[in-house]
Write a structure and sequence with these properties.
alpha/beta; two-stranded antiparallel sheet; 19% strand; 272 residues
Length: 272
């Protein structure tokens, strides 16, 4: 495998409930386990932050805190505070992350206290510095930008090497998006989560109707995967079934997840 530079992949959807966070964590787990890439996952600060629900199943307890007049900072809020005071460095960021798989897969939790306007004036600059540090610390950075337009998400999407647009198979939502399709300056992959081949809007028809030019990936509907994700056991589920044979009940799911992961990596510029 060729040596690569660090890559940034942003996940976004136009509507809530597309399974964006779970799909991002599943793709990241595949990249970590199959290609041995060191991955960091984070979420835009415009969200409530539920990565820990997918990857640990217990609330985040900060290892590094900074006392202020208002509250003890942790996670992303801690890093934003440090950047505002020109003290943020790679060691602080590493200590603020939670290890899902040691030396290989980490996530940056949201702060325990949501005060969205505290760093409003410096948020973009601070996120830029966090992304630079993430590139230094990892092979891949995954950014969950949530749903809908906002200034911070637009900035993060513009910084990414590839953008993954999460879609449902609902006609109304599909038409709403593609009638005013967003233009991105970087490579785009369309990802259907909870995919059902029996739907009228299957891969073949989606490509035909919306002219996706082969940039369509899917993660099949799977109640076992969804249960594992809801219980914070997503990464062990992926790792357990990743080498499964055709007799494994998860073979089809893992095959499509592998294909989607490879497509997204290729769009970002990864070369095996």
């Amino acid at each position: 495998m060729e040596e690569i530079i660090s890559l940034k992949i942003a996940f976004w959807s136009e509507e809530d409930g597309c399974g964006t966070t779970s799909s991002m964590a599943a793709i990241a787990s595949m990249c970590s386990n199959v290609w041995g890439m060191k991955t960091i996952l984070m979420q835009s600060r415009n969200q409530e932050g539920d990565l820990y629900k997918k990857l640990e199943g217990i609330p985040y307890s900060s290892k590094v805190r900074e006392e202020s007049a208002y509250y003890a900072l942790g996670g992303l809020d801690y890093l934003l505070w440090q950047e505002e005071h020109r003290q943020l460095d790679a060691a602080m960021m590493l200590n603020s992350m939670v290890a899902v798989v040691k030396e290989r897969m980490y996530y940056l939790p949201q702060g325990e206290h949501k005060k969205r306007n505290v760093y409003a004036n410096t948020l973009k600059d601070a996120m830029a510095q966090i992304l630079r540090l993430s590139e230094y610390l990892s092979d891949l950075t995954f950014i969950d930008c949530g749903s809908g337009p906002d200034e911070l998400s637009e900035y993060l999407l513009a910084q990414a090497d590839a953008v993954v647009i999460n879609l449902s198979q609902e006609r109304q939502a599909l038409d709403a998006y593609f009638q005013s399709r967003h233009a991105f300056c970087n490579n785009v992959v369309y990802l259907v989560n909870r995919y059902c081949q029996e739907s009228v809007y299957n891969i073949q028809n989606l490509n035909r109707i919306y002219r996706l030019q082969g940039n369509l990936a899917v993660i099949p509907h799977n109640p076992f995967f969804r249960y594992a994700s809801d219980k914070g056991k997503l990464e062990p589920f992926i790792r357990r079934h990743i080498r499964g044979s055709m007799l494994d009940c998860q073979f089809y799911f893992m095959k499509e997840l592998m294909r989607s992961s490879h497509m997204i990596l290729k769009a970002a510029g990864f070369a095996e």
